[in-house]
Write a structure and sequence with these properties.
Blueprint: E1 14-15, H1 35-46, H2 53-60, E2 67-68, H3 89-98, E3 100-107, H4 114-117, E4 123-124, H5 126-139, E5 144-148, E6 155-162, E7 167-171, E8 192-195, E9 201-210, H6 216-232, E10 235-236, E11 239-241, H7 243-255, H8 257-260, H9 265-299, H10 304-327, H11 335-341, H12 344-372
Parallel strand pairs: 3-4
Antiparallel strand pairs: 1-6, 2-11, 3-9, 5-6, 5-9, 6-7, 7-8, 10-11
Length: about 375
Amino acid sequence: MRNPMLSDTRPHRHVIDGAPSVSFYPHDGKVELCPFPACLKSCLETMGEQAPYETIMGASGAAFRLLWNPNEWDGGNVDLLVMAEEPLEPHRRAFEAVGHSFAFMANAAYRQIPAVTKRFQQFASHDTLVAQIVASLYDRQRPVLALGVIGPPECSLVTGYDDAGEVLIGWSFFQDMPEFNPDGEREPSGYFRKRDWFADTAGIFVMGDKVEPPSQEEIDRKALAWALHVARTPKVHQRCNGFDAYTAWATALLRDADAFATNDLDRLFWLYAAHNDAMTMVAEGRWYASLFLANIARDAPRMAAPLLRAASCYAAEHDLMWKIWSMVGGAGFTATQVRNLANAEVRSRIAPLILQARDKDCEAADYIERALA
């Protein structure tokens, strides 16, 4: 049945070809693991614009984040929606930095993350979301950023629709994971095809028009001030944040020996996943933070010295995370890594490295503060 929100002048199928893929795995010689920045970068490139991944990571604050729920081993620590008191603050800052307005519409029926969705102000029905997606893709030739579609409410890139919007087409970090995408339907291009997407979609970002951006100096200073806020805020909702998150993470590894004393491999995988997410937030985030600060230092000589010292601290944090990975058998997500983390002696050697990373993060923040002085 034709969607009544779809104009008779629009085709039942429309696809924007050639959008760069997003993935948890290296592609084009790069590792870009944070879904929203990666999807925004791909969206802009599809529109003929450029924004480096490190710019989006830095401006959004994603490069500087670390969260840890002290009450449970939480797979949601890594989600950008939980890194600020206002869920869309990181996204708003990213859009501002790349010079675009945006509109966000939450799925009125999505209740998997009520603590987040209840804070959104604009809710939309299935037909309204379809109409907005079709208008962006067909009328304006702009991909849509969607939270979910496949997998958890992390960002995916919608590049097309079929069956008058009942099928969405695009890229998702989770499209090749059978546990999240059992049908695994694909376009010849590699894009996913997803029917019955509405229930799995928390909301959509519709790319607006170009706007007059602030001066580069203002953009940089706002990003640096936000980085300090992200790093130094001790708690966001129920999660420890910033420096306190490092302490809570290290404490959990040593405190929760009983949780690791199990032969239930699924449970051990869950514990490892929360730990691995924290390593990834620090390893990838601080690496791109170092590049982001180096770029600002290049263009702002007066801030260069302290920013380059901060960048060096962040690069050192990245290296510490790789030391931790080496202790569990290397980067990966296999039973080997999982069982190694369950070893109390291994965890006792990991915890001090996490605290060393915390100290480097504190040092980097002090240098950023000097740069802003």
